[in-house]
Design brief:
The structure is a homodimer. In chain A, strands 2-1-3-4 form a four-stranded mixed β-sheet, with helices on one face. In chain A, helix 1 runs parallel beside helix 2 and helix 3 runs parallel beside helix 8. Chain A folds into two domains: 77 residues, Glutaredoxin (3-Layer(aba) Sandwich); 132 residues, Glutathione S-transferase Yfyf (Class Pi), Chain A, domain 2, CATH 1.20.1050. By secondary structure, the first copy, chain A, is α+β, with helices and mostly antiparallel strands. The N and C termini of chain A lie far apart (39 Å). Chain A is 51% helix and 8% strand. At the A-B interface, helix 3 and helix 7 of A face helix 3 and helix 7 of B.
């Protein structure tokens, strides 16, 4: 059985897909090490044709192909039930879905308003045109204009973090005393920024700051070792 | 052993505290029926002096006194471990905390912008002065002005619901296939409105609408039987 992870490739071998980071940490949590990690450009998805769609991450586990980070997490949980649990049961899995939608639907857009110019600067040159076209359509603004106005959006970013900030003020991880998949979802978002942007997203007195440090330390510093900015 | 719940009392015997509803449903989930429910006005907290604080809900379980809906839920979970679980384990409990902060810190303020005038109209006449003073200080606006401008805040309310809306589009309950404490937290917020306001907070095609119906049906229609508006 071989385990292969397909993930996004940026400029200079950067790996900043927030969704791929969710999967990387989910694999580590299960004690699984990919035999191979295959980097893919935004515009070179021919490598993913076997998966029947064109988005990373894709996990190939033997003959099984799973795409979409959420589906990969639930696949891993169900396929490897005897290894450490990603969700800790049905309620944890249920509520993790809400965290997934919170990160995708509220956190990512708010963070994008702050770092999209930096992400653009770090996609592979080959992908720049594709990235500009798709992102400018999504946000209804030019990347440079968003970048120039980012300070205006800092307050909204801070506000959207409120529920997770207060949670990790009370407890070490979003999932309680120990990390689990809800933490990996949220942390993936921060790895998107770490791989691309020098913009300081968290004040040092924000309870999310030491939480992020704890996440960077997990699994022998798996995420900390990745190329990126330490802000 | 006797179980006594202290909760908020509104006009005409209305019971619309979102926090008390969390506790009511948590008790029902555990199969516990309070021997007595003691209603308290906002301005008559002498009844709560024994709890060392002045907020409802308070649960008195034999000689044990617990105040604060979150603490009551974790108390019930730990005190009655053999009854149906409210959190389904450590991860569920961890992430439920984030749902609690999401509801208290983002959902309640957004809903208040729409219904506070209606809540005001439904507090006991004795409490009106207290309610006006505390709420107008909290929101920095007169209750009547907020009420007159509520249509302006409908969009923000819809947006803040995004993560939970998409979750219950995918699955029957926030907690998965079956309801658990995260659902009771969110549902308490809607019971605050049901007890006080005819304002339609959810469109019929919003996935939260049938979720709310499912919640109203739980435990033999416990919440549906409470006096209130069916919108």
């Amino acid at each position: 059985m071989s385990l292969v992870l397909y993930e996004l490739l940026g400029k200079d071998d950067l790996r900043f897909s927030p969704f791929a980071w969710r999967t990387r940490l989910a694999l580590a949590h299960k004690g699984l090490v990919p035999d191979k990690i295959v980097p893919c450009l935004f515009t070179d998805k021919t490598k993913l044709a076997f998966s029947g769609q064109d988005k990373v991450p894709v996990l190939k586990d033997g003959d099984t192909v799973v795409s979409d980070s959420w589906k990969i997490a639930t696949y891993l949980e169900d396929r490897y039930p005897d290894r450490p649990s990603l969700f800790g049961g049905a309620v944890g899995r249920g509520v993790a879905k809400a965290i997934n939608y919170y990160c995708d639907g509220q956190l990512h857009p708010a963070m994008a308003r702050l770092i999209l110019g930096d992400v653009f600067a770090n996609v592979d040159p080959v992908d720049r045109e594709y990235f500009r076209k798709t992102r400018e359509a999504r946000f209804g603004a030019a990347i440079e204009a968003m970048h120039a106005e980012r300070e205006k959006h800092v307050e909204a970013w801070k506000n959207v973090l409120l529920p997770v900030r207060l949670t990790v003020r009370d407890q070490a991880f979003l999932s309680g005393d120990a990390p689990a998949y809800p933490d990996y979802i949220l942390f993936g978002t921060f790895m998107w920024a770490r791989g691309t942007s020098p913009f300081a997203l968290l004040a040092k007195d924000d309870p999310l700051y030491p939480w992020r440090e704890r996440m960077l330390d997990l699994f022998g510093g798996l995420a900390r070792r990745a190329k990126g900015h330490s802000v």
